[in-house]
Amino acid sequence: MARSARTPRKTARVKRPRPPAARKRGPSTPWKTIEEFLNNGEGTISLGAVNHSSLRYTAIASDEHNMLVALVRSRGETLHQLLDRLDQALGPALEDQIYVDEINGP
Question: What pairs with residue 25 in β-bridges?
Answer without folding.
Answer: none
